[in-house]
Amino acid sequence: MIPRELTAKLQSLAELFPAVTLTGPRQSGKSTLVRTTFPNYRYVSLEDEDMREAALDDPRAFLARYNNHVILDEVQRTPALFSYLQGVIDQHNAPGQYILSGSQNFLLMNRISQSLAGRVAVLHLLPLSYSELAAAHREPNTIDDFLFEGCYPRPVTLGIDPADFFPSYIKTYIDRDVRAELGIKKITEFNTFLTLCATRVGEVLNITSLANDCGISTDTARDWLSVLETSFITLRLHPYHKNYGKRLIKAPKLYFYDTGLAANLLGIESADQLFTSQNRGNLYENAIVVEIIKRYQAIGREPKLFYWRDSNQKEIDLIIERGGRPQYAIEVKSSSTYRPKSFENLEDLAPLMGVDPQHRFIVYGGSEAIDTRHGHVIGINDVGRLVQ
Known about the structure:
single chain, alpha/beta, Rossmann fold, 2 domains, about 40% helix, globular, P-loop_NTPase, AAA_14, AAA superfamily protein, DUF4143
């Protein structure tokens, strides 16, 4: 197992809260992480039909048996259990009673908000970060390998070809989460929708155009985007909301939580093919956005990330806000060669937001860190500097 940066936060919250919930996409390593972190806890998988039936048939007896120091995996599969969990947790009123994990964030969080609010801490585990790979000496040879292969633990650790892993992953996701658990019936159209989302990675989202290309209504497109987001497949990066006297673009940009999945949906068949793809720059930008999110979530925090684009098409790829104001202004360049002109937009726009040169960054495709009078140049290996 590649060590996960979230481990320390998971342990510390279990010492403070009666229950800790760990959500994330399928195959992100949740079960492995909780079982490794809490080896003395009893483990119950509610994917197991017999266990699930026992929990649903007599929840009081089930929880009387499993009442303390228990991992309940895929717990969203037993929604009736949550109201009974509340009673057991309140009766014992001790930290670390339950570790709850699940892959369907919408269903899981809906049950928690109804029954366990205030009693449970919530963490998210995404696929492996670049920093986790590097710490385990498993980082890919090139940036293009990293973008193409993605970061799901199973293909990374077992060397599974992305062409074998991702089609099976998509089929499992569609069959289990989309069809069975969320009740979406138009599976063919949903598959098309997912692929069309991949063609828009890193672009400002025009939901009407996306709906028209898929042959569905805009309301359906909005619903399906919400499904993809709560399943940790896609995310939306919203534009910065402060006016500053400028006419700013109001639509979000669309990204995937894993570039390997996006590349597979785009039909990219190798890292060499990705190197020459017109999507390479957008996929690298996607990787940097998600790397920052992973680093924040590893310390149990939600980042406040935005982008800036005004009506004159001047853009800053990323703004990290802290304390109600921009802390960092960041441009992403996939080239491994640094060029001073990369700072042009930052020099034009960052002063307007009060971001000085020490807080302006270019994240490029190289690995050497360079400090300039315009700001700092770093590679993906040094993105941790932006998470404080």
